């Protein structure tokens, strides 16, 4: 039983998780803030405010059960095209959350990281991000990575440009470009690929998120809107992940031979 952690959901369902088979890295597309607000007759920004509460819940629960990396889609490159007022509100929620949640991150030994075109964010956010990243850099329990102004296609193009520059300068030979070399040019350099991707709100899309990194990730779609997503929903997603057989292109028989 030492390897099992037993979690009880609000309806008293027991979820049993195998501690030895936890995903190392969970990626989340936090979708449904707007619909959550609309369903309650509230303005969309209140959906995002409640989305921050959900993120706090899920990040602390993840760290608590031993997840090493949690990477969340907080603002996509495409989100810049939303109405100006919503973009402004999201930026102000982000800057406030960074200030307010510093203590949550420190208390839980979580280090903050960011991926995406950070230079496109307002200066105030860049400054705040740098500060929180620096102040939490010793957090060795879990890395919480915010994908901000992030587009996976743009990340891959950027990596290709940087790589081409290194080839042009003679630092690298084209024949030496392997997957491992290419990955060193991605924002996620040094991080393991996500084992599990969770998308909330009943949408079944990847939406330009971690396209390279998700090649062999298990996908889990929840009908819950992000502000309603609870730690029990997280355990449920992990329990489902633990039932899957990850074959990485091999056969079941090959996998069983190797165990
Ligand atoms: C998707 O909901 C969510 C976003 C575009 C932003 C995600 C942001 C948060 C959870 C809060 C802010 C995050 C941080 C890190 C401070 P949607 O607006 O697309 O919802 P809809 O599809 O129902 O309209």
TrEMBL record:
<dbReference type="GO" id="GO:0008834">
    <property type="term" value="F:ditrans,polycis-undecaprenyl-diphosphate synthase [(2E,6E)-farnesyl-diphosphate specific] activity"/>
</dbReference>
<comment type="subunit">
    <text>Homodimer.</text>
</comment>
<keyword id="KW-0479">Metal-binding</keyword>
<feature type="binding site">
    <location>
        <position position="82"/>
    </location>
    <ligand>
        <name>substrate</name>
    </ligand>
</feature>
<comment type="similarity">
    <text>Belongs to the UPP synthase family.</text>
</comment>
<dbReference type="GO" id="GO:0005829">
    <property type="term" value="C:cytosol"/>
</dbReference>
<dbReference type="GO" id="GO:0016094">
    <property type="term" value="P:polyprenol biosynthetic process"/>
</dbReference>
<dbReference type="InterPro" id="IPR036424">
    <property type="entry name" value="UPP_synth-like_sf"/>
</dbReference>
<dbReference type="Pfam" id="PF01255">
    <property type="entry name" value="Prenyltransf"/>
</dbReference>
<feature type="binding site">
    <location>
        <position position="80"/>
    </location>
    <ligand>
        <name>substrate</name>
    </ligand>
</feature>
<keyword id="KW-0460">Magnesium</keyword>
<feature type="binding site">
    <location>
        <position position="36"/>
    </location>
    <ligand>
        <name>substrate</name>
    </ligand>
</feature>
<keyword id="KW-0808">Transferase</keyword>
<dbReference type="InterPro" id="IPR001441">
    <property type="entry name" value="UPP_synth-like"/>
</dbReference>
<dbReference type="InterPro" id="IPR018520">
    <property type="entry name" value="UPP_synth-like_CS"/>
</dbReference>
<feature type="active site" description="Proton acceptor">
    <location>
        <position position="79"/>
    </location>
</feature>
<feature type="binding site">
    <location>
        <begin position="76"/>
        <end position="78"/>
    </location>
    <ligand>
        <name>substrate</name>
    </ligand>
</feature>
<feature type="binding site">
    <location>
        <position position="48"/>
    </location>
    <ligand>
        <name>substrate</name>
    </ligand>
</feature>
<feature type="binding site">
    <location>
        <begin position="32"/>
        <end position="35"/>
    </location>
    <ligand>
        <name>substrate</name>
    </ligand>
</feature>
<feature type="binding site">
    <location>
        <position position="218"/>
    </location>
    <ligand>
        <name>Mg(2+)</name>
    </ligand>
</feature>
<comment type="function">
    <text>Catalyzes the condensation of isopentenyl diphosphate (IPP) with allylic pyrophosphates generating different type of terpenoids.</text>
</comment>
<feature type="binding site">
    <location>
        <begin position="205"/>
        <end position="207"/>
    </location>
    <ligand>
        <name>substrate</name>
    </ligand>
</feature>
<protein>
    <recommendedName>
        <fullName>Isoprenyl transferase</fullName>
        <ecNumber>2.5.1.-</ecNumber>
    </recommendedName>
</protein>
<feature type="active site">
    <location>
        <position position="31"/>
    </location>
</feature>
<dbReference type="GO" id="GO:0000287">
    <property type="term" value="F:magnesium ion binding"/>
</dbReference>
<feature type="binding site">
    <location>
        <position position="44"/>
    </location>
    <ligand>
        <name>substrate</name>
    </ligand>
</feature>
<feature type="binding site">
    <location>
        <position position="199"/>
    </location>
    <ligand>
        <name>substrate</name>
    </ligand>
</feature>
<feature type="binding site">
    <location>
        <position position="31"/>
    </location>
    <ligand>
        <name>Mg(2+)</name>
    </ligand>
</feature>
């Amino acid at each position: 039983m030492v390897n099992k952690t037993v979690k009880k959901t609000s309806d008293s369902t027991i979820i049993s998780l195998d501690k030895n088979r936890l995903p190392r890295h969970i990626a989340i597309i936090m979708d449904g803030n707007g619909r959550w607000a609309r369903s309650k007759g509230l303005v969309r920004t209140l959906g995002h405010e409640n989305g921050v509460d959900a993120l706090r819940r899920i990040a602390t629960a993840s760290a608590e059960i031993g997840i090493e990396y949690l990477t969340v889609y907080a603002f996509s490159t495409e989100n810049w095209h939303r109405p100006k007022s919503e973009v402004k509100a999201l930026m102000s929620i982000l800057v406030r959350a960074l200030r307010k949640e510093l203590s949550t991150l420190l208390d839980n030994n979580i280090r903050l990281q960011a991926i995406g075109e950070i230079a496109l964010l307002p200066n105030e956010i860049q400054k705040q991000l740098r500060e929180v990243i620096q102040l939490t850099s010793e957090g060795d329990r879990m890395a919480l990575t915010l994908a901000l102004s992030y587009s996976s296609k743009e990340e891959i193009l950027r990596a290709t440009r940087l790589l081409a520059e290194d080839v042009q300068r003679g630092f690298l030979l084209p024949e030496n470009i392997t997957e491992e070399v290419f990955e060193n040019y991605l924002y996620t350099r040094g991080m393991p690929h996500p084992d599990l991707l969770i998308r909330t709100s009943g949408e079944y899309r990847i939406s330009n998120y971690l396209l390279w990194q998700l090649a062999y990730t298990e996908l889990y779609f929840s009908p819950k809107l992000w502000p309603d997503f609870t730690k029990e929903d997280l355990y449920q997603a992990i329990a489902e992940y633990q039932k899957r057989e990850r074959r990485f292109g091999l056969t079941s028989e090959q996998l069983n031979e190797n165990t």
